[in-house]
Amino acid sequence: MRAIFSSRSLWGFVILGTLFLLAATGAVAGEEWFSYLPGVQRTEPAIAAEFRGLWVTRFDWTQYGQPAEPERIDEIMAQAEAAGFNAVFFQVRGAADAYYTPGLEPWAQRVSGVALGQPPDPLWDPLAYAVDQAHAHNLQLHAYLNTYPVWDNCTTVPPHTTPEHLYHLIVAEYGTVDGKPAGLQWDTSGEIHCSVYQRATPTAALVNDHLLAVITDIVTRYAVDGIHLDHTRYGGSDASCDPLSETAFGAPCFSDPAYPDWQRQQINQFMTRVYSETRQLDPDLWITATAWPIYIDQWEWGGSQGYSDYYQDSKGWLAAGSVDAITPMIYPGTYPCPYTGFWSQERWEILTADFQADRAGRYVFPGIGTGYCTFDEIAARIDLARQLGTAGQALFSYTGLAAGDYFDDLAAGPYREPAVPPPQPGRRP
Question: Which of 64, 118, 274, 289 has the smallest count of CB within 10 Å of its CB?
Fold first, then answer.
């Protein structure tokens, strides 16, 4: 009769028995004992899901009057990966100009270092390069665009370029009234509202169509992981009294208590359209947007309110499913040392909790400043975000981290363990 067990089989049972004994006695503590068995996959520790975003503004990677350099993008992406980030908001549009090979808007002056509309020499495409570098460093890249800004402050817009700048398209479409473009935001005195930017009025159909075309152009030409919108708001509580808005509303600006709600509706409709149309292009594309840090000042702190001072209904975007996430900008413009300003840790926690409570199944990635003179301020806010249950955070911005040399602090501290971005929230049909 043929032997039932060969010597090899017998030794196999001996080995298996030994492994079972070791597992039972804890001799292989810390390991999954069955991972040693033939044909069984070893179980790896689960990687956390947490969005760790870094804003990279156009001022972070370009310098005025100097040509932009690919090496700068190399450095930024390498440092972001080493620090533990998994996503970057990379700015590609500032004031209706392009920080990438133009499709519908002219080259930004800060790319060539020469003039608006002038291509860089030698010719290269910063966005294509940034996408490749980000992906090589295991980072998502979200193309970051300023929405309604048309030009800086109250300065003169440069002459015609190819492609034509949005300012000139607006003038050609809507003309001027008393020498002022009818399609820009006006203040209650009848002047162009231009304290920071000259902004297009959200009422202008040409502007909204143009913005959607720019976003579509980026999404179809580049392998971006998301679109991130900033300055999706009016310029201030006294904007906008432009002729287009008054005509569309049917009454002088602010003459009716319904006017602020009507203004918010203009932006809400635009955000819904962005989400709907980009989803048709790429169902996996993230749509995120910055939010003014105080939605409504229910604490009577005296700060500006997104809802009433900028007519930005960021919580409405969440409720309508018009964004995957918002990034409230809860950080200061200046950083005294030690920090004792308006945006304390206590207020940061209160504001983050306020947005988080109304996330409506979407995400809130609270913004954290990076210019503090001690890293503890950053680490404390990351910890607070985790305690509040947010799906991640976003740090503003790269330059602050570089100035404080905080990349190693992140890698050794809050971002010591790796994380991947969370799955996108459920999308509506």
Answer: 64
Measured distance CA(381)–CA(367) in Å, rounded: 9
Nearest to 212 by CA among 147, 263, 130: 147
For 300-317, write each residue's pLDDT tens digit: 999 999 999 999 999 999
Which pLDDT tens digit goes with each residue over 235-252?
A: 999 999 999 999 999 999
Q: How many domains does the chain have?
A: 2
Give a yes or no: residue 429 inside a domain: no
State the Cα angle at 270 between 266 and 271, rounded to 5°.
120
DSSP symbol at 94 = S
Half-sphere exposure of 192 (CA within 13 A, CB side): 24
For residues 419 and 10, give the distance between their C-alpha atoms in angstroms, rounded to a whole number.
45
What token pair was written down for 41? 């996959």
User: What is the Cα–Cα distance from 68 to 61, expressed in whole angstroms?
Assistant: 7
Hey, what's the torsion of the CAs at 188, 189, 190, 192, to 10 degrees? -90
> Does the residue 426 lie in any domain?
no
pLDDT digits (tens, 9 = 90+) for 383-408: 999 999 999 999 999 999 999 999 99
Please indicate, yes or no, whether residues 217 and 290 belong to a single structural domain of this protein: yes
Could you report the per-residue pLDDT of 8-17, keeping only the tens digit for each?
333 343 333 4
Domain that holds residue 341: 55-420
Residue 158 covered by a domain: yes
Buried (b) or exposed (e) across 302-313, using 16+ Cβ within 10 A? ebebbbebbbbb
Q: Could you tell me the CA-to-CA distances from 127 to 23, 31, 219, 289, 335 in Å, in that order?
A: 52, 44, 11, 19, 31
Q: Which residues contact 375 (CB under 8 A, 6 or more apart)?
A: 404, 406, 409, 413
21 with 168, same domain: the answer is no
Identify the three-state secondary structure at position 152: strand
Asked if 227 and 218 count as a contact pair (C-beta separation under 8 A), the reply is yes
- Domain check: are 85 and 163 in the same one? yes
Give dist(CA 392, CA 385) in Å, integer. Answer: 7
Let me know: does 253 contact 259? Beta carbons within 8 Å: yes
Tell me, what CATH number does 160's domain have? 3.20.20.80
- Phi, psi values for residue 22, rounded to 5°: -65, -40
Q: Which helix (H) or strand (E) holds 149?
A: strand 149-152
| Integer Cα distance of 186 and 192 in angstroms | 4
